[in-house]
Automatic annotation (TrEMBL):
Coiled coil: none annotated. GO terms for molecular function: DNA-binding transcription factor activity; sequence-specific DNA binding. PANTHER family: ARAC-FAMILY TRANSCRIPTIONAL REGULATOR (PTHR43280), TRANSCRIPTIONAL REGULATORY PROTEIN (PTHR43280:SF32). PROSITE patterns: HTH_ARAC_FAMILY_2 (PS01124). Residues 191-289 form the HTH araC/xylS-type domain. Keywords: DNA-binding, Transcription, Transcription regulation. This is Transcriptional regulator, AraC family.
Length: 292
């Protein structure tokens, strides 16, 4: 049902007339002025990042609030939702790129998942650019804009290399790159688990069922999640269901009963108990808090 979803944009639909399917990059100030409708909750089918160099206000990623600060950058992966409420003018840079944008360039199709800010955790996706790195970062973004404004041979490949420089330098300069030296096989297994949850959270709720799909034991899956995420496998599944509930509650066209049915809860009261236990709010109270 179309009405069960927050608006989700692809790179084509977010800007009518845009013809480049894998990349969109603009200065933030003019973009915000041209696209006022994008201030409310919406999702993307692409990767999205914004670097603020000036401005104030707030923005949310998957219902976590952040205060806008100069030289703050935030990252989003496909499927996440966000909104923003700026106070006065903002300046900076905005980049959208499709999942295929780097897959055609890098042999390792899971490469972006090595960065904590591209793992779908909103708390790890908002970073302050260190003062020592700001001039370098601005130069990288200006170089990318120049490649778009004056197209030359292999221009998109140059933009890819500039973006990768930005990701790596940011990882080196912040705490996000220092948590774990995660073995690739563990990271791949975790990524596969998270992808399975995204596909089946409505119908599969037990860790042992996901463990069977991954050909590992439930204890192995639980230890993996505890080690890499600090959560049990059951908590990871629960959090995904809870996130989808929040996304649906923002849509005023849906009743609480319809949302409970959509999320495969046995009845409305069970859904209410689940939501209040994990958020401290009833579904109706959450809707009033986040719907505008």
């Amino acid at each position: 049902m179309a009405k069960t979803k927050i608006p989700v944009y692809d790179i084509y639909s977010i800007i009518p007339g845009h013809t480049q399917q894998d990349l969109l990059m603009e200065r933030l100030g003019p973009y915000v002025q041209k696209h006022q409708h994008l201030h409310s909750q919406h999702g993307h089918s692409f990767y999205h990042l914004v670097l603020f160099t000036k401005g104030a206000g707030t923005h949310t990623i998957d219902f976590t609030h952040f205060t806008v600060q100069p030289y703050q950058v935030y990252f989003m992966i496909p499927g996440q939702v966000h909104s923003w409420h700026f106070e006065g003018g903002v300046e900076g840079y905005l980049v959208h790129f499709s999942p295929a944008f780097f897959q055609s360039f890098l042999n390792d199709q899971q490469y972006l998942a090595r960065f904590d800010f591209f793992k779908g955790d909103s708390e790890a996706a908002v970073l302050k650019i260190p003062a020592t790195l700001r001039e370098t970062v601005v130069q990288l973004f200006e170089h990318m804009l120049q490649e778009l404004e004056k197209p030359r041979e292999s221009g998109l490949d140059m933009i890819r290399t500039y973006l990768l420089q930005f990701f790596i330098q940011l990882e080196r300069s912040t705490a996000t790159g220092m948590r774990h030296n995660i073995p690739p096989q563990k990271q791949l297994l975790l990524n596969n688990f998270q992808q399975l949850i995204h596909q089946h959270y409505n119908t599969i709720r037990l860790p042992k069922e996901y463990a069977e799909l991954l050909y590992i034991t439930p204890n192995h899956l639980n230890a993996l999640c505890q080690d890499l995420l600090g959560k049990t496998a059951g908590e990871v599944i629960r959090d995904r269901v809870l996130l989808e509930a929040k996304r649906l509650l923002v849509n005023k066209e849906l009743t609480i009963t319809e949302i409970a049915w959509h999320l495969n809860f046995q009845d409305n009261s069970y859904f209410n108990r689940f939501f209040k236990k994990n958020t401290g709010l009833t579904p109706e109270a959450f809707r009033k808090q986040f719907s505008h």
